[in-house]
Each structure stands twice: as structure tokens, then as C-alpha cells.
Amino acid sequence: MLFDTHAHLNDTQFIEDLEEVIDRAQTEGVSNMVIVGFDRPTIQRAMELVERYDFMYACVGWHPVDAIDMTNEDLSWIEELTSHPKVVAIGEMGLDYHWDKSPKEVQKDVFRRQIRLAKKVKLPIVIHNREATADIVEILKEEGAEEVGGIMHCFSGSPEVAKECIKMNFSISLGGPVTFKNAKKPKEVAAEVPIERLLIETDCPYLAPHPHRGKRNEPSYVKLVAEQIAEIKGLTFEEVAQATTQNAKKLFGIK
User: Fold this and answer.
1) Can you point out the beta strands (E) in 38-112?
2) Which of 15, 47, 156, 242 has the fewest CB atoms nearer than 10 Å to its CB?
3) Residue 106 and residue 67: Cα distance in Å, rounded?
4) Residue 113 CB: number of other CB atoms within 10 A?
């Protein structure tokens, strides 16, 4: 019973062998996954996948790197999609100061508009944060994001920031980096964050865990993330798998 809370099986890297990837995930005990769409093509593909597979759910939103491309029509379309029973969250949204395609002020505006939409439709949000922690925390507070809560996706911050996010009704999701030998912060976060606030993810095809680092990631590898967290927290693999799956289902409103 593993729940990959953030997968991009809608990525073109999976076109050739999608069925084999899904089979491997199910063999490793992955019972649910959320497919994340973050622009027109990836959202459309995510919706196609969740229509086809009963164990897949969708998260739809607009990525901060492409914020400059988002139109009013795009946001209205996302709002329409939230009425679909398998759309369980809005995102990934947030701020990305690593790439300079979209100006910071445009990113912030698109981020705020998506938070407001999430509050309107009463869905949790999934946060993408790259080199923008202070601004993200400030906007979440100013916009009252605590009302819907959500996920700090592929969390890379400190345990202190994690605790601040938890106070704002957010869960902390860890992926492949927690397995990297030199990844001090994710291991500290895994140790300090209460198990009832932890989620696991792959962010596939990106950030494959050890020993697959540098290769294409896939949902079956979420097992390696759970195993690493179990080792860090002194829990069994089964305890981590069960807790993180229950956490995800509760957050996404999946019965």
C-alpha cells in the first residue's frame, strides 16, 4: 500500500513503455498515484490517464516557470476541471527563482490567483518551491492558504521551515533526495517531521532515488523513499507505507 503523491506519467518520457512502468509500480505495491499537470498539454494528458486508470487521480494547475504563459482562459479551464471527481488538488503552483523565464512579480500573481481559486473550490494545493522559500511562506500566509492546506512538494528546506509549513496546515512530501548519501536536510526533515504529516512521492521522471540517481525515475521507486524514511525514523516499512497512504487519502479526500 504505497501512494505516490506526485508523478508525471503524463511526461513524454513515458510514451514508449507506460504499461510496463505501471505494471512495475503495482508489483512494488503502489496502489494509488496523483498525476500532476502544470500546463495545457500536461493537464490534458493527466485527465486522459485518470479517466483510463481507476487508481490514478489528477492535480491540475500552472507551473511558476511558465507563469508568464498563463491566460485568464487557462485559469477558468482549471476551475472547470476541478468539478471532475478525480481532480483532487490544484497545482503544482508556487515560485521558481532558479529559472528566469517568468518575472518574479508575474509568478507571484499567478500563485496568488491559484490559491484563491483553490479556496473557492475547496481543494488542497501542491507547492513547487525553488530558491523562493521566504516569499512562498509570506504569500501562503497573506492569502490564508491554511484554509485549504496542501503539500510542500519535494520538500528541500530545513526542519524549521517544515514546522512552519505544518502550522499552516501543510504536509511535507519527500522524494528521491532523501535517499541521497549527501542529502543532509531531507534526512533531518524525515527524522523530525511527525509521521502523520509526511507524504512520499517520486516526482518522476525526475529525481530518481539511490541507486537509480541520474536515470529516469518511475512510481515503483517510491518504495525506496518509504524504506529510507522507515530507517531514519526507526519504523517498519509497513508502518511508513500505511501512514503515508492514509495521510494522502485524507488530504485528497479519497475514500
Assistant:
1) 56-60, 87-96
2) 15
3) 6
4) 18
Could you tell me which of 142, 149, 147, 139 has the C-alpha nearest to residue 172?
149
Give residue 84's Cα distance to chain centre.
19
Residue 233: DSSP 8-state: H
In this structure, the dihedral spanned by the alpha carbons of residues 35, 162, 246 and 202, taken in order and rounded to 10 degrees, is: 30
Q: Which residues, other chains included, contact 118 with Cβ-Cβ below 8 Å and sequence gap of 6+?
A: 90, 124, 125, 145, 148, 150
Domain range for 179 is: 2-252
DSSP, collapsed to helix, strand or coil, labels residue 245 as: helix
Report the distance separating Cα 136 and Cα 147, nearest Å: 16
* CATH number for position 84: 3.20.20.140
Q: What are the tens digits of pLDDT across the range 192-226?
A: 999 999 999 999 999 999 999 999 999 999 999 99
Peptide bond preceding 103 in cis form (omega within 30 of 0): no
pLDDT per position as a tens digit, 38-91: 999 999 999 999 999 999 999 999 999 999 999 999 999 999 999 999 999 999
74: closest CA among 35, 29, 110, 106? Answer: 110
Number of domains in the chain: 1
